[in-house]
Specification:
The structure is a single chain. The chain contains 9 helices and 33 strands. With 449 residues, it is α/β, with parallel strands linked by helices. The strands form 5 sheets. The chain has a 19-stranded parallel sheet that branches. The protein has a 7-stranded mixed sheet with strand order 5-4-1-6-10-7-11. It has a 3-stranded parallel sheet with strand order 26-29-32, with no helix packed on it. The structure holds uridine-diphosphate-N-acetylglucosamine (UD1) and magnesium ion. Uridine-diphosphate-N-acetylglucosamine binds next to β1, α3 and β10.
């Protein structure tokens, strides 16, 4: 059975107090819109349509960054959710199968819930996702008739009796594509808001002898984001859920509340994550690796047995092989560090390849940027880079080679060679004592005057 998705993302999100369109605000490092697309992606939708309006261009670019085949349609005036869905009609012309309508600002709907809705379609023409609300507030209310859904009434249009109903509309709807657009055509705007309400299709379906039902899910799944406070609360819920899932999968965390994860963070069983570690998007940590306190990782891969931190920074393209050690105040960017190599203190390795078992001394810097372009540094296996070596890229240091402390490497170093490039030391006898007494006398004079 083919499935299409329509994701509504035209609303302004006034209460976010932001220039960024609401659906582009992030949770776990990914825009709200991506979360909605991600939960539906397991259904392998044949078409995904995003309805945009406010900030259309940036929203469309974000949708296509997630799924290059996503189709964007514009809703120039926000006349209501039914009007928004109607904008997708043309691009879904001729599509046969079910369509699921989601909101771009509702990030936590699970794939399982969507699958339940599709299953319920076997016996009903229209399936709505409902939830028991602790505080039903201004949600639309589901008016049931036994196991059938009779209609949905918006809060503004509801009677006192209807407002007492606690079964609420999440906004997610599933129906056959042809049926959905036929029903939408009959939706009017004669209501308290003067808007075209998508939920009205339920009453219309029943009046036409079609059937509707509700599938329910946990209220937490239907959480929508309307303000910065709700965004922060949703982030907290997301973090809790991700930490719990990783711990259940065998990851060791001493202080889980201080570990921040992204939507795509992968951590293997028996890996240890110390307190205060941030995983920005794109990180994979293999089984048995150890990420020590106060480290920040993004777009990096850490292999089995590697130790990172404390106070380390792995930037995009950091590729650490097995048993690599990255120590304090070390930054690795777009660089591969081979098996057993050590970069233990105060070092920047960028745009580089470091061979197996090579030791990089404290304070080493790959000078990868000439102010205009980036260049690569290559270091062979079993090499010793002395402390405070400057590697002026592009440059290659061979295998089993050495650089002397404080060497500025501007030429390639052959295999097995030692490079030394620094001025020779001279000792001026008695000079330090003389200088100290001069300076002390000067200070004493200043104190008096
Ligand atoms: C809607 C439902 C309500 C439900 C609630 C759940 C309607 C009429 N009401 O109300 O039953 O309980 O969601 O959160 O559908 N949008 C557009 N174009 C528009 C209008 C809205 O793209 O013209 C988008 C918004 O960006 C948003 C979503 O549709 O993502 C829902 O719109 P919103 O205005 O938040 O609807 P609610 O009043 O919350
Ligand atoms: Mg809303």
């Amino acid at each position: 059975m083919s499935t299409a998705l329509i994701i509504l993302a035209a609303g302004k999100g006034t209460r976010m107090e932001s220039d960024l369109p609401k659906v582009l605000h992030k949770i776990g490092g990914a825009p709200l819109l991506h979360h909605a697309m991600l939960s539906a992606s397991a259904l392998e939708p044949d078409r995904t349509v995003i309805v945009t309006g406010h900030g259309a261009e940036t929203v469309e670019a974000a949708a296509q960054a997630f799924d290059p085949d996503a189709i964007a349609v514009r809703q120039h005036e926000q006349l209501g959710t039914a009007h928004a869905v109607a904008q997708a009609r043309e691009v879904l012309d001729g599509f046969r199968g079910d369509v699921i309508v989601l909101y771009g600002d509702t990030p936590f709907i699970t794939t399982e819930t969507l699958e339940q809705m599709i299953a319920a379609r076997a016996a009903h023409d229209v399936v709505v996702l409902g939830f028991e609300a602790a505080d039903p507030g201004r949600y639309g209310r589901l008016i049931m008739d036994g196991s059938k859904l009779a209609r949905i009434v918006e809060f503004k249009d509801a009677t006192e009796e209807e407002r007492a109903v606690t079964l609420c509309n999440s906004g997610v709807i599933c129906a056959d594509t042809g049926t959905l657009f036929e029903l939408i055509e009959a939706v009017g705007n004669d209501n308290a808001s003067g808007e075209y309400y998508l939920p009205d299709i339920v009453g219309i379906a029943n009046a036409r002898g079609l059937s509707a039902t509700a599938v329910t899910c946990d209220e937490a799944e239907t959480l929508g984001i309307n303000s910065r406070a709700e965004l922060a609360a949703a982030e907290a819920l997301f973090q809790q859920a991700r930490r719990r899932a990783l711990i259940e999968d065998g990851v060791m965390m001493q202080a889980p509340d201080t570990v921040f994860l992204s939507f795509d963070t992968i951590i293997g069983r028996d890996a240890e994550i110390e307190p205060n570690v941030v995983f920005a998007p794109g990180v994979t940590v293999e089984s048995g690796a150890r990420i020590r306190a106060f480290s920040h990782l993004e777009g990096a891969h850490v292999s089995r047995g590697a130790i990172v931190g404390p106070f380390a920074r792995l930037r995009p393209g950091a590729e650490l092989a097995e048993d690599v050690h990255i120590g304090n105040f070390v930054e690795i960017k777009n660089a591969s560090i081979d098996e057993g190599a050590k970069v233990n203190h105060l070092t920047y390795i960028g745009d580089a390849d470091v061979g197996a078992r090579t030791n990089i001394g404290a304070g080493t810097i790959t000078c990868n940027y000439d102010g205009v372009m980036k260049h690569r540094t290559t270091i062979g296996r079993d090499t010793f880079i002395g402390s405070n070596t400057m590697l002026v890229a592009p440059v290659t240091v061979g295998k089993e080679a050495m650089t002397a402390t404080a060497t500025v490497v501007t030429k390639d170093v052959p295999d097995g060679a030692m490079a030394i490039a620094r001025t020779e030391q001279t000792n001026k006898q008695g000079f330090a004592r003389k200088l100290f007494s001069m300076l002390r006398a000067k200070k004493a004079k200043q104190a008096k005057g």
